[in-house]
Amino acid sequence: MDVCQYLTEGIKRIDPNAEITSIPVADGGEGFADTMLTALGGEKIDCPVSNPLGREIQASYGILADQQTAVIEMAAASGIELLRPSERNPLVTSTFGTGQLMRDAMERGCRKLIIGIGGSATNDGGTGMAKALGYRFLDKHDQEIGSGGGNLNRLNRIDKSSVFPLLKKTEIQTACDVNNPLTGKQGASAVYGPQKGASPDMVELLDRNLEHLARVIKTDLKTDVLKISGGGAAGGLGAGLVAFANAKLQAGFDIVKEQTGLEEAVRRADIIFTGEGKMDHQTKQGKTPWGVAQLAKKYHKPCIGIAGFLGEGYHELYQEGFTSLFALPNGPLSLEESLKQAPSLLADTAEQIFRIIRMTKHE
After folding, report:
1. What pLDDT digit, counting tens, does each position of 36-48 carry?
2. Which fold has domain 2-21+262-362?
3. pLDDT band at 331; cut points 50, 70, 90
4. What is the DSSP string of 37-99?
5. Which superfamily does CATH assign the domain made up of 32-253 to?
């Protein structure tokens, strides 16, 4: 909503009479729970959980107005922003806290969980989440393996004898913001490992370990998660939720679109604005701005993309429904300065765009 507010401010400088509809959207990453609560009503629940390195923190999730549905962001408990850059190490980070949020929601009576899986600090294939729900991951000596993606090569078998009983009675829908498979060149480790602190050697190790995990899952749980679309989301949590919680993977944007009435708003609009922190070739892999652009394309509406940074391959987005793309910085800026100046940069960029639009209209 803050971004909507700043863009509105810039537009109104040029056209005070502009009618603006603001719809915050998310694709499963940060802001997903707030977006759903804004659209559907409900309450926030605070819950003590373990962060990706096992430190206790307070995280929150939403219970919708029906009192039966919980909306959970894995990033709230297992997100990369919870760690300092020097702490980020996908060999040891765990999704255990996400499993704690799921368990708390089920204990409160929720029988449907909608879980957004973006912005993770992890690469453990969802094994941490599963541990919180009663699964045990054992080595060849029947001892539990350590947390994190770096220990998965020691996995010999999965014990499901003590799984939390309410898990079988709960429908789990996963809001996934990417369509990457679990392993390979487009997999969880290769594409997202480096931003979580993985070196090239670590990426290779993590990829092999996730492939090993998939083999054990197929043997012990009779589920093949190796190549499912979205299985690589959140360091393999997508695959883990399918394997350990019988979850259904769905594009997070589609879930939010249905709940917020976004498509009808796009159909009625003259110009569409959307954006994210970085827009590049990955944006078209199911990210929110791509989804908005697809709606704009469907209804033949101009779509303006605004980003903190335009990365490699952003030109490809012009074939996906975007009319024009703009980066916010107005000079050499550090990330810290860019974040600090984001409100004014957003408003100023919207103003500059609308100056061009007004001139075009007058001509």
Report:
1. 898 889 999 999 9
2. Rossmann fold (3.40.50)
3. confident
4. HHHH-EEEEEEEEE-TTS-EEEEEEEEETTSSEEEEEHHHHHBGGGS-GGG--TTT---HHHH
5. Glycerate kinase, domain 2 (3.90.1510.10)
